[in-house]
Amino acid sequence: MHMSPDTETLARGILTALDTVRQIPRPSVQVPGFDLGDGYAVAARVVALRVARGERPVGWKVGFTNRMIWDEYGVHAPIWGPIYESGLVAAVDGLAECEAARFCEPRIEPEIALRLAQVPDADMDDPDLLRCIDGIAHGFEIVQSLFADWRFSAPDTVAGCALHGSYRHGPFVPVAARDAQDWCERLKRFRIRLERDSTQMDEGGAGDILGGPLAVLRHLARGMSGNPHGWALRPGDVVSTGTVTRAFPVVAGEVWRSRIDGLPLEDITLRIR
Question: What is the pTM of this model?
Fold first, then answer.
């Protein structure tokens, strides 16, 4: 791998940037030839440093699953990185809050999250993948860019914690075996309407995220297979499957709402402080 400065230096720089909410130069600018393998190596070291100081990974975010935003960001394939316990927060009566100042250039993304009951295999069909899930939720991911003006390469985004900030979610709805076929169909057809202060900002559907959340889970399972850094899916993991609409900047004082149609999940409102 093309690592000079080395993985440790880059990882510690990213961790400091997260802690101080400041942006830093892109690794791909600092290191000639910085590639996806390098990005995941740095990300793995960041995870190790965060775990060593007491943080606990509880799942995974999958980013850039929405093909509609690939050209906007110059990233043309999904990426992934950990979600931490401290940033996974349940809404109360459909309402959650988030402080914008905790993140670098924060943006908001309405997403579907899956909670795993067992570890899926990339060769599973949709019904088998669904049997690996014990709950499905609707929520908001707050994403951030440690790199100014949201300009980066795909390896930069991987190193930069997959752009993850936090995830606010509604209740996880159990998936009953008798409803499995219905869930499989609904997860391919649902729509989400994103509003800011009661004004519609965008709309998207399951087809925009690789064909739906189950397709995203399959992609993640394939990508995790044989991971050289010891990353693996585990029962209980929460998997956030990517934004259904475009991502929008957020500032304090705004109120965002994601309205979902086609899934038996609650709408969710997020107040930005």
Answer: 0.94
